[in-house]
Amino acid sequence: MPKGYWIAHVTVTDEEAYGRYAKLAGPAIAKYEGKFLARGGRYVWLEGNEHVRNVLAVFPSLEQAETCYRSPEYQEALSHARGASERDLMILEGDAD
Fold it and tell me: Which stretches make up the DUF1330 domain (predicted)?
């Protein structure tokens, strides 16, 4: 079954508020069976608008990834990221493990 991948590109503008987001987001993602594959590590930007924080998380399916995003737990976390970061987030379906 294809998995669902969150791909996020983030520039943090308020470290304190974004820290509150991170504290709540991790447990929300885990609750929906998501796990981080990469988070804030080294990268090489090749095209487009660069963000200095990049995140890759995997879920059992695209639907599970979307359910997590729309969940009350994640939306509560996200309320701290809004205004504290510039973010691009998408969900991509894929077969890789």
Answer: 3-94
